[in-house]
Amino acid sequence: MSWNWNSHGLPFLPGYSFRDVTKLAFHRPQTLGYNNGYALPRRPIAGIGQDPLLSEHLLQQEISELSLQTSDITYGSYEQGLPKDFIPAHVALDKKVLRFYAYFVEKIPCSPEEDSCVRSVVIYYYLEDDSMCIIEPTVQNSGMLQGTRIKRQCLPKNERGDLYLWKDLNLGMDLEVYGVKYHITHCDAFTKEFMESEGIVLNDPEPTPVDPYSKRRTTLQPSFTTPSEFDHIHQFLTMDRKVLRFFALWDDADSLYGETRPVTIHYFLVDDTVEIREVHEPNSGRNPFPVLMRRQKLPKKIKPEFETFPSCVLEVSTQEVDEYYSPKDFQLGQMITLLSRRFLLRDCDGFTKEYYQKNHPDMEMKQIDFPKKTDMPQVTKKKVPPYNGFGSLEDSLQNCLSLIPEPPKKNILKMLENSNKALRYSARLDSPNPNDEGRRFVLSYFLSDDTISIFEKPTRNSGIISGRFLEKTHVPKPGATVDNPEFYSPADFAIGATVEVFSHRFVLTDADQYVLTYLESNSSQIPCQTLESLQQKLGVGTANNQPVDQNGDDVAEPSS
User: Could you give the CA distance from residue 526 to residue 213 in angstroms, rounded to a whole number?
Assistant: First the structure.
C-alpha cells in the first residue's frame, strides 16, 4: 500500500487513484533470506517499486478509522452480526444424567407362598445421546440374577421405531420396554430441577410397594409352640467362624517310643465340635496328614444304660450321650482326655483369652511352660565354611544358606530415608612413596547402605590416572575378623584420623558442611572428639566454603 493516494485525502476507489508517471521501478521485494545455508522468511521493508510500507501501528490506526466511518444504519451493528458459538451436545450435556427410580412386578406361577414379586430398578437417561440403561440394585442373598437389566442404548417407544426422549418421562407413568412395564415412582434432585427448567411439570412422587415375600420374612413367626431347649439358629448367626484355639501336648506314652508331640486343638463355637491337628516340623518324617482327630462332637458322659454297649461298632448318637464337652472343660495347665488320649493344655491364642474373659471370667487362662523334648534327637547346626575371599561377606554367606542363592536382605526403610545422602571428606594418601604426596582424594560415605567409595582428583602433570579409586563397598576396620566383621561408620571419621582401606592409609583433611550438620543432629551416636575436630575445622572457614551439592562428585577444597 502506497502513501500516494492517502496523502491527498481521496478514497482508494476506481477513478480516485492516479498513477505516478515518474515511477520506473516495479519489481517486487524479496521476502526470503539465507542464513547458514537455510532459507528463512523475512518481513519486507519496502513495497513494489521501493515504495515505503505502512508500519504496523499506522496500519492498525488507519483500519480503525475506516471502521468508525462505517454507518451502522447501512450495514447494521457489528455485535448483532456475530454468530453464536456452536457447542455440540456431547460437550454441553456431557456427564448430565437423569435418574428415575421405578419398579416392576414379576409373576411367580409355581409358588405356594407368593404369586408375584416386586423388584426395584433405577433408570438412567443420558442427555448427550438420548440413551438409557436400566439397573437393578443387588440385594444380598436374594437368589436372583440382578445388576444391569438393559445395557445403555436408545430404547424404542413404539412399533414405528420412535425412540424415548426425556420429554416422554414423568413420575407416576409406566415405561414399557421390551415387554416389561416399569412404573416410575420418584427421581433425584438434579432430574427434578432439569425437568422443571425445561417447562415440564412433574407429578407427585409415589412410594414403592413392599415386596410381599420380603415382608413375610421380616415378620416370620416360629412354627413351634413349645420353647426349644437351645436356639441353634441364634448360635449359628452369632458364633459362625469363631473358633477357640488351644496349644497342647499329646502324651503318647502308649506308642512304641513313648514320646510327647505338640498338637493344636480347635473348638468350633458354631456347633460345639472339636478338631485336633498335629504340629509337624520340617523333615520330621511324620505322616503328611496332620489331622489327628476329625471334626466331631466329643461325648463327655454317656448314659449308664449305654455304657456296656460296644461303642466301637456304632457311632454314639445324641440319645446315648448325657453331656458333651463345652468350653468350660478346657482349662489351661490341666490334663484333658479326649477319646482316650491325654492332652496337656499349655497356651491359647488372643481370641480365646478374650472369649474366656467375657463369658467365663472365673476361669484363669495363664500360659505354662512345657518341658523340653529330651527324648528327641537334637539337630546340629551346619557349620558355615570359611570365607574364601571372593565377593563380599554377605554374598558369600548366601551361598551357604540356600541351594539357590538369594540377594542379601536390605533395610528398605533406611534406604528410603537416606536416599541420595552421602558424607564427603577430603583425604590424602599416607604413603612412604614421595610420588604420592600430591595426590588428593574424596572419600564418600553413603548413609543408605553404609558403603564407602573413593574418588581421586586430577593432578596436573602427575602422570597418574585420576578417577574412581574404589567402588561402593563395605570397608572393614583393621583387625576385624571374618566371623565378627566390624565396618567403618561416621563416628570413626574425624579430621586428622587415619582410615585404612584395604592396605591403603588415608588421612582425612577436610569435610563438607553437611557432614557437621548431620553429625550434630545425631550427636548422641557420635563421639565428642569427632564433633570437636569437625567444628574446629569448619567453624571458621564455613563462610568461605561453597554450598554442598549432594548430587555432585566433589567437595570444597580444604580450608587453609
Answer: 77
Q: How far apart are CA 461 and CA 353, in angstroms?
A: 79
Q: Enumerate residue ranges in the chain where pLDDT < 50.
A: 1-7, 373-381, 540-560
Q: Is residue 452 within 8 Å of residue 446, measured between CB atoms? A: yes
Residue 514: C-alpha distances to residues 328, 403, 414 (Å): 66, 44, 19
> Could you report the per-residue pLDDT of 56-95, keeping only the tens digit for each?
566 666 666 656 655 555 555 555 656 777 888 888 888 8
Burial letters for 347-372: b for 16+ Cβ neighbours within 10 Å, e otherwise? bbeeebbebbeeeeeeeebeeeeeee
pLDDT at 228: 55
In whole angstroms, give the CA distance from residue 413 to residue 344.
43
> Is residue 551 assigned to a domain?
no
**Same domain for 352 and 252?**
yes
Closest by CA position to 250, among listed 290, 283, 289, 285: 290
CA distance 503 to 493: 17
Task: Based on the fold, state whether residues 438 and 534 are members of the same structural domain.
Answer: yes
Instruction: Give the count of domains, the chain.
Output: 5
Q: Are 148 and 133 in contact (CB under 8 A)?
A: yes
Q: Let me know whether 94 and 210 are in one domain.
A: yes
If you average pLDDT over every residue of the chain, what do you get? 81
Q: 442 and 401, same structural domain?
A: no
Widest distance between CA atoms in the chain: 147
* 421 and 522 belong to one structural domain: yes
311: left (phi over 0), alpha (psi -120 to 50) or beta: alpha
266 near 318, Cβ under 8 Å?
no
pTM of the model: 0.35
8 Å CB contact between 293 and 338? yes
Query: Residue 260 forms beta bridges with which residues?
Result: 251
* Shared-domain flag, residues 195 and 104: yes
Give the whole-angstrom CA distance, residue 256 versus residue 407: 45
Q: What is the CATH number of the domain that holds 124?
A: 2.30.29.170
Q: At 558, is the secondary structure helix, strand, or coil? A: coil
- Is residue 75 domain-shared with residue 102, that is, in the same domain? no
Strands lying side by side in the sheet with 180-187: 147-153, 131-136, 116-126, 97-107, 180-187, 174-177
For residue 67, the enclosing domain spans 23-82
As a whole number of angstroms, the distance between CA 250 and CA 136 comes to 56
The count of other CB atoms within 10 Å of the CB of residue 135 is 16
